[in-house]
Amino acid sequence: MKKAKYSADKVAKYFIYLSNKEHRGISNKKLQKILYYSQAWNLVFNDGPLFQEDIEAWVHGPAVRSIYTKYKRFGFNSIPFTGKSDEFSNLQEKELLNEIWRVYGKFDGDYLEILTHEEWPWREARGELEGHALSDAVISLETMKKFYSDKLKKSKNG
Q1: Quick one: 2 exposed, middle or buried, by C-beta within 10 A (0-12, 13-18, 19+)?
Q2: For residue 138, what is the DSSP state?
Q3: Helix (H) or strand (E) holding 56
C-alpha cells in the first residue's frame, strides 16, 4: 500500500472550501464523515491512504482527533472558510475529492453518522462496545479498503 501524501488538515480545508463555495455549510460532525469517506475511497481507487492521521471509531462515527479538536469550537454550526483553498496538484486526487463531495456533501452530519454506523469498518473497530461508550479504537485501513472495494464490486455487478 502506498504512503499518505497529505495531512488530514489539508484535506479538511479543501472540503471546507467546497462547502462554503456552494453555500452548503459543513459542521465538524459532517466534516469527520466526509474525511472518512475520502480516506476509504482513496484506498480503493489509489491503493493507499489520502492522509496520514488515524480515524477513530467514536460514538458519533468515524473521527480524526486532530481535526475534531481544531474545529470543535464551532459546535454544530458550519465551519467558515478563511484563507485560500489548499489545492491538490494531482488531478486524479482532486477529482476523487470532488466526487466524494458530490456524493456525500449533500447529506448532513446526522445522516452520515447513521450511514457509517451501518457499515462494517466502524462496527468492527467498536467491537462489543455499548452504543454510547467512548472509544479511541482506530478503524483499520485494510478493513476500509476491503469493505469499500467489495461495495464497488457489488454495485458494478448489479
Answers
A1: exposed
A2: B
A3: strand 56-58
